[in-house]
Amino acid sequence: MSTATPQQFDIVIAGGGMAGSTLAVALLQANPALKLAIIEQQAEQISSTSFDSRSIALAAASVELLAKWGLWAELAGKACAIKHIQVSDRGHFGKTQLSAAEYQQQALGYVLEVEPFGAVLSGKLAQYKQLQRFAPNTISGITTTQQHQHLTLNDGTTLQTRLLVIAEGGLSPSRALAGFTVQERRYQQYAVIANLALAQGHQHTAFERFTEHGPIALLPLNAQRYSLVYTVEEAAVNRIMQLDDAAFVEHIQQAFGYRAGIFTAVGRRACYPLSLRVSGDIVRHRTALLGNSLHNVHPIAGQGFNLALRDIAELVRQLSAAPEDIGGYAMLRAYQQARQQDINTVTTATDALVRIFSNRSRLMALARNGGLLAMTLCDELKRPLAEQAMGLRS
Questions:
Q1: How is the chain split into domains, by residue range?
Q2: CATH: 3.40.1190.20, 3.50.50.60, 3.30.2290.10, 3.30.360.10. Which one for 7-71+115-184+275-353?
Q3: In the beta sheet, which residues pair with residue 231?
Q4: What confidence score (pLDDT) does residue 391 get?
Q5: Lower Cβ count inside 10 Å, N or C end of the chain?
Q6: DSSP state letter for 16
């Protein structure tokens, strides 16, 4: 470590993307006296790779959290409500539909493009003088003592903190430095993401459609568009990404069908490999994980960022309950105990969905379509799915 006196902080957040920046806002809103630092490998105020053209589905309960942290008022006008969700298996009889009105709700959730979300977070963080950013930078070394984590950054800067929170994403380099191990299952699938223009309105309807090519999710956006998440097999991704725009639109139309209407154009496409990554531990000495650094799940049910927001809410709750014990054993143990069941439930459920709906067995197809049909015929079977969509069930 450097012989220079380290800069002192209450909490250092490794990662300035969606999860890390939202955590910083939530922490400072709850306790403005905290001295915080964000270490971010991107030079920009908010990481451009974290806040690209993607969209996120926010459960109704997640919107309540964002409102509590003073973020939703600026985001509401940029979000599109999900009032209906249709789940179907193309070529088979099974389907079910959820409606917000059935549950006396204005919306089951909302869809928000992450770029405006990043701009709102940047504006909020700029208001706090007790927050310091170290960017572009990364952690190159961690030395642990009883009361602190001592961090060395790649430019030689040294920091001392009572609590290190790692929120760098699924491929977090600091997670390994801090001694965490990760269990990974690769799905041999890629997610192709893009925005699609429609010839008509979407009526605030989201779709999860299982096709022979892979699951296709369509999330309604403002300006008569859908956010597409198309899960494809690893062997097919290069061919699909190399299609020109017109051929890509035609491919999606043929794969999905006309249930959502006619697609007329596509925006910039991106793709990334899909894996399930879960850390063996949630906390270690004076260190906590959250977001994708803790649990990186398949996008099949749109649960990833909603799960991260619940991590943030619980960490803020524990820090607020014991402000004198920042990073202490009791506080971190309480955070771990509070989050373990929710994380286990969501990771197990999303992994099961991938296996069930990626299986081409006729027997499996019959079973899953029977389940979808049963939910259509019995509201009590459908209610857990609706509560999960709204973030009321974890």
A1: 7-71+115-184+275-353, 80-112+187-274+359-390
A2: 3.50.50.60
A3: 191
A4: 54
A5: N
A6: -
Residue bearing tokens 């950054």:
153
Strand partners, 274: 189
- Return the structure tokens found at 23: 């955590």
Indicate whether 2 pLDDT > 70: no
pLDDT one-digit tens code per residue, 253-289 = 999 999 899 999 999 999 999 999 999 999 999 999 9
How many residues are recorded in the chain? 394
Give the separation between CA 226 and CA 248, rounded to whole angstroms: 15
**Cα 63 to Cα 222: distance, rounded to the nearest angstrom:** 17
| pLDDT tier, 105 (very low <50, low <70, confident <90, very high otherwise) | confident
Per-state percent for the chain, helix, strand, coil, to nearest 5: 40, 30, 30
Structural tokens at position 215 = 């699951």
Rg, the chain, Cα only: 22
- Inter-residue contact 351 to 296 (CB < 8 Å): no
Q: Which two tokens stand for residue 43?
A: 């030079």
Distance CA 11, CA 334 (A): 17
258's tokens: 């006309």
